[in-house]
Amino acid sequence: MSPRETLRAFIVDTFFVDDFGDDDSFLRKGLIDSTGMMELVAFIETEFHIKLDDKELVPENLDSLSRVVAFVTRKQSLSKAS
Amino acid sequence: MSHGLPSVAETAQAVRSGIQVVRAEVLPRAERAVGIARARWLFRAFRRGQGVAAYGPVSARNDGHAELGDRLTFLGGMMPTSVACYEGARLLVGNECHFNYGVSLEAWESVQIGARCMFASFVRVSDRDGQRIAPIIIEDDVWVAHGAILLPGVRIGARSVVSAGSIVSQDVPPDSLAMGNPARSMSLDLVAREATGS
Amino acid sequence: MMMLGLGPTVARLKLRRCESVGLIPTVWGRVWIHGGGEIRVGHRVVFDARMAPIELHAQKGARIVLEDDVTIEGGSSIEAQSSITVGARSRLGMWCKVLDNMYHPLRGNRHSRPQSVPLVLEEGVTVGSRSILLPGTHLQRGVSVAPGTVISRRIPAGVSVGGSPARVLRRGEAR
């Protein structure tokens, strides 16, 4: 599965929201709350074997599905390069 | 009505409004006065500001240098709050902080708390955990939610929130939300919604 | 009824501030009921507050419903600003905290009160000690929550969760 599908499956499974677009803000749409956001972060770390820094937990990286996917791909390519 | 006496309904009305005035105006003031008097006794060994009020059981002890700011509130509940400052230690609490019941605040070396902080029930703040002693600094406007534990040596940035049940072992930057065990911090922009605040 | 002795009567006396109390309530220790809201207690509910008092707080206009055969252990506190329901045969461990309101917003004026989100625990739920159930929690049938867990979302039936933030430990069939 591509990262996008994995992430979407996790979000649908965990937070019981099926109807959301790739660019919908998690926060403004009320899809994920703060505890949920932590669960998402934990999931990303275990699933994609990357380590997220506390400084990276900002809306630019995590506030919508497309942002999360872009962020994960960037992190993965970085860890492969190093 | 020809006679001068008020009717039963009028008397009842007057009594009801009287009770309402007592409930709304007199009782809260009386409670506050009692709270302030209690705090004056409980914190007699502390240097403290104006209007410190203790509404519930508090066990306070000061063998070092402890300073409380103005208008602190210690709420009562099922467990007593304990504030302890041991020999040679420094405990500074800023103005307008709120402490819910069951908070345990211990200083062995140095604990500094800024203004307008809020501590929910069962929060534990201690700068000694059996292995090491390191100072704790909590900046202004911090909210520490139910059951959180702050370990020695952490610094919580201004306006941050420590979420319920988290165990904070690392510094928390300003404007962030710390959560989990061990706690990780994320930006408040990521999660602060106006409506539910969750 | 005579065989049961004075227990239920004393319990009923301790629960006198509740709107309704079912058959044969058991109260050991002190239950602290305040707030002026509506609290309904089902049949055979057990409050075991021998170690620490139990707190039931329902704000005026709010409602707490404890259904039949619920057990609540000492030190737990249930605070309702709108509505909290605990389903039949559920069990709350010691020092649990159940809240349907955050009481303070994360940012802005800390003394304004955010919106409440009603909280539901369905039948046969087990909540471990020192767990914290935040607004938005919905535990479905037979969920089991490990001690010390923090939850604020829906957990599907039969799942056991644990940790902070909560993770699914095991998926199983609802019992």
Automatic annotation (TrEMBL), chain A:
Residues covered by the Carrier domain: 1-76
SUPFAM superfamilies: ACP-like
Protein name: Acyl carrier protein
Source species taxonomy: Bacteria, Pseudomonadati, Myxococcota, Myxococcia, Myxococcales
From TrEMBL, chain B:
One MF term in the entry's GO annotations: acyltransferase activity
Coiled coil: none
Keyword Transport (UniProt): no
InterPro entries noted in UniProt: Hexapep (IPR001451), Hexapeptide_acetyltransf (IPR051159), Trimer_LpxA-like_sf (IPR011004)
UniProt keywords, alphabetically: Acyltransferase, Transferase
Superkingdom, taxonomy of origin: Bacteria
Record flagged with keyword Membrane: no
Pfam families registered for this protein in UniProt: Hexapep (PF00132)
SUPFAM superfamilies (UniProt xref): Trimeric LpxA-like enzymes
Transmembrane feature ranges: none
Name the record gives this protein: Acyltransferase
Native organism: Corallococcus sicarius
